[in-house]
Amino acid sequence: MPTEPTVSPGVRSVPVRRRGERLERDLVVVEEPLEIRVDGKPLVVTMRTPGHDAELAAGFLFGEGVLSDADDVASVRAEGGFRQRDTQIRVANFSGDAVNVALREGAAKPNVTHAERNFRATAACGVCGKTEIADLDSDLPPIVPIEIDPRLLETLPETLRLSQELFEATGGIHAAGLFDRHGSLLCTREDIGRHNAVDKVIGHFVLKKAVPLSDHILVVSGRAGFELVQKALKASIPAMVSVGAASSLAVQMATDAGMALYSFARPGHGNLHVKE
């Protein structure tokens, strides 16, 4: 991986030793906690790669149903300097970042006290905040299925890959991208957490008041787990492509909803999952 300086809050240069005693420097992905607040009250702390924090907050809240639609957001503001006293996370020389989402007057207010106990997320977990099995079966809006040539879907992961600047620098970060049905890339986001990358992409369009995302395709750099399918369906995305495998529950959820789920996608290859 390249070691020249990269101007990004998501990348840091660290000393390494390679093939003996020679000291060199390498670029690594930054992983730091972010506190998401609603109307000034703490809701969740998530480990993420800095950058597009407002989008991450908006996408997470939309996916969890705290925001029912884009019009629920009155403002989103990044706030620095909050100490994460109750997270058992200790990061040297880090005072804490936060994003405060203010809800418009009249929007449904979440039970922040309840959510504060239950939404304890990490970059690697999509169900850490769930306390009951029934919580996994959240209400999802209907989608309108679309027909897309699999040959087009097979090209999208490479298009996404070419847009991954942080992966090019570090070799260790997830990505998600939203495409239109003709294969044009509209938005790419990267993060140490694959769920965060999807939240950032969806949050981008939440803040632009451009959801639901009917007639679009979500592409993810890793596997398709049910949590990512659930996030896509929450935004009414009718097609999803993954570089890696799909899980059984992801397949069931996608096919039940009428979503086109295409896994192991690469030129000349892919699995289009169908309902039994």
Order the strands across the largest sheet as they lie in space: 8-7-9-10-11-12
Shape: flat
The number of domains: 2
Helix content: 10-25%
Q: Would you give the CATH topology of the largest domain? A: Cytidine Deaminase, domain 2
CATH domain class name of the largest domain: Alpha Beta
Biggest sheet details: 6 strands, mixed
Radius of gyration: 19 Å
Helical segment count:
8
Structure description:
There is one protein chain. The chain is an alpha/beta fold and 276 residues long. The chain has two domains: 32-135, Ubiquitin-like (UB roll) (Roll); 150-272, Cytidine Deaminase, domain 2 (3-Layer(aba) Sandwich). 25% of the residues lie in helices and 28% in strands. It contains eight helices and twelve strands. The protein has helices spanning 53-63, 112-118, 150-153, 156-162, 165-170, 194-207, 226-234, 248-257, and strands at 11-17, 23-29, 32-38, 41-48, 73-80, 97-103, 174-180, 185-191, 216-220, 239-242, 260-266, 269-272. The strands form three sheets. A six-stranded mixed β-sheet has the order 8-7-9-10-11-12, with helices on both faces. The protein has a four-stranded mixed β-sheet with strand order 4-3-6-5. The longest helix has 14 residues, at 194-207. It is flat. The N and C termini lie far apart (44 Å). 41% of the residues are buried. Mean pLDDT is 85; it is low at 1-5, 82-94 and 120-124.
